Amino acid sequence: MDPSLGEHSCSCTCSNGLRFEQSLPSYSPQSGGSSSNGSLDACQAAQDKFFAREQELLAEIEAYKPKLPKYIGCYIEQAHPNSILTGRRLASKSLTFEQCAMHCEDYKYFGLEPDLCWCGNELKFGVTIVEDKECNDFCAGNRTQQCGASWRTAIYKITE
């Protein structure tokens, strides 16, 4: 309310930074605070509408957020190294964690070695988990990301 103007206003602020302002008629104690044209009710209704839409938009945004993969371990297969996952494969001298995750987005798992990416829906029978420190080589395309090692595959599960 701006007392100098003698008018009330309703302000609705949403978390997305949008601001809706609407002037309201003066408050009158004689009328019990209600206005003749229902401006306060209209303001409350508008606020409720925008709040409901905000919740809908937040749910939509959440649905479109990328699912973060979960690291499940460092694996080796003795008989045929590099065949822990049998789906798609990507070899790249500039491989990054993100590239592999995107390449394998339609699978349940992906595995990384410094310049190789493997996709699959299940881990092959006969694989052995080894200590995480054995998967400490850097990705070819990002020297700050660890991407398995020679004959060692860092395996991630794509969360749903």
Automatic annotation (TrEMBL):
PROSITE patterns: WSC. GO terms for cellular component: plasma membrane. Keywords: Glycoprotein, Membrane, Signal, Transmembrane, Transmembrane helix. Residues 68-159 form the WSC domain. The keyword Ribosomal protein does not apply. Pfam families: WSC. It comes from Alternaria burnsii. This is WSC domain-containing protein. It is found in: Membrane. The keyword Transmembrane helix applies. It is a single-pass membrane protein.
